[in-house]
Structure formats: structure tokens, C-alpha cells
Write a structure and sequence with these properties.
Blueprint (H helix, E strand, L loop, with lengths): L21 E5 L8 H12 L23 E7 L3 E7 L1 H7 L8 H4 L2 H17 L3 E8 L5 E11 L8 E6 L5 E2 L1
Antiparallel strand pairs: 1-4, 2-3, 2-6, 4-5, 5-6, 5-7
Length: 174
């Protein structure tokens, strides 16, 4: 069974319009309001070499409590994000193992496009992306959360890769 709002009280509510799906970019200064995401970001910064993002983040260097809320992603064909690893909560949220799934497998087309666009922008600038998101899963369940998307070094084929972490304290299912 998935946690409810009672298990994950929102420390700072995600203020989004009342439409079904929304993506609100946030300033990186807002990371201080999300301590676990801030620690992940600090670890990512320490991993930079010669202005390039790290190839990976060591799970031992990030808060253990955030690991169930982490995804590793790869940008394929500049139009789709593919999951290469997903934490246990994220898999449970979507009903099973996500490795190999793409944005089209759990987002409606318009939502998938906004997620991919945010990833493309992060890859192009090698800069993190912090955002408040609300979406309706293909299962019709609505979720909101704050997420941090960090570009990683490209894979062996040159495809952009990302470390995505959801702030469990901001997670709310409606």
C-alpha cells in the first residue's frame, strides 16, 4: 500500500493552479526549504570535475531516506526519458518495476513533453532543475511533489543522463 498524506505530511505545500497538471519551476535558492534535496544537490556539486557534472552520485553520500524517491533517467532520441533505475516508492507509486519504462508509459502526451523539455534544458545548460509538479498518472491518480533534476555525465553513447529526486515531505496524493 502506498503512503498517504498522513505518512508524508507536506512541510511546505506545493502551491499550483487547480488544473489537472502543472509544472512550476522554482529558484535553486528554494532548496534550503527542502533539506534532503539540498544535500543531494551539494553532493552533486562536489562531484563536478573541470566544469562537468559527475557520472553518478554515490548512494552512501545522499540521505538514505531519499533513496526510495530517486530515479536515474536517460534522454533517448531527444524526445523521451527512459528510466534506468527507480527507487522502491517510485515503483510502488506506478504499480511495479519501472526500469526500461519511458515518460510515455506514465504521463499523458502533454505532460510527458513538459518533463522531457525540462530535462533537455537541464542537459543543455548542465544546470539543476528544481520544480513543483502536479500530474495525473495514466491510472487517473493525481500527485504533487517538489523534484530536483540533476544532469549527470552522458552515457557511453553520448545520451544525456539525470538523477531525479522527489522530496518525500512535499509528496501529496489527492
Amino acid at each position: 500500500m502506498l503512503p498517504t498524506n498522513q505518512s508524508h505530511p507536506a512541510s511546505s505545500p506545493v502551491a499550483l493552479p487547480l488544473n489537472l497538471a502543472a509544472h512550476r519551476p522554482m529558484d535553486l535558492a528554494d532548496l534550503k526549504q527542502h533539506p534532503m534535496l539540498d544535500r543531494v544537490h551539494e553532493n552533486w556539486l562536489r562531484g563536478h570535475r573541470d566544469g562537468r557534472p559527475p557520472a553518478r552520485l554515490d548512494p552512501l553520500d545522499v540521505p538514505a531516506a531519499i533513496l526510495p524517491y530517486v530515479m536515474l533517467l536517460r534522454l533517448d532520441d531527444d524526445r523521451r526519458l527512459t528510466v534506468t533505475l527507480a527507487g522502491s516508492f517510485v515503483c510502488a507509486l506506478h504499480g511495479g518495476e519501472l526500469r526500461g519504462a519511458s515518460t510515455e508509459d506514465f504521463f499523458a502526451a502533454q505532460q510527458a513533453a513538459s518533463v522531457v523539455e525540462a530535462a533537455r534544458a537541464a542537459a543543455a545548460t548542465n544546470q539543476p532543475s528544481l520544480a513543483a509538479r502536479r500530474y495525473v498518472a495514466l491510472s487517473r491518480r493525481s500527485w504533487s511533489y517538489v523534484r530536483l533534476l540533476l544532469p549527470l555525465a552522458p552515457d557511453a553513447e553520448g545520451r544525456p543522463r539525470f538523477y531525479k529526486a522527489l522530496d518525500p515531505d512535499s509528496l501529496a496524493g489527492m
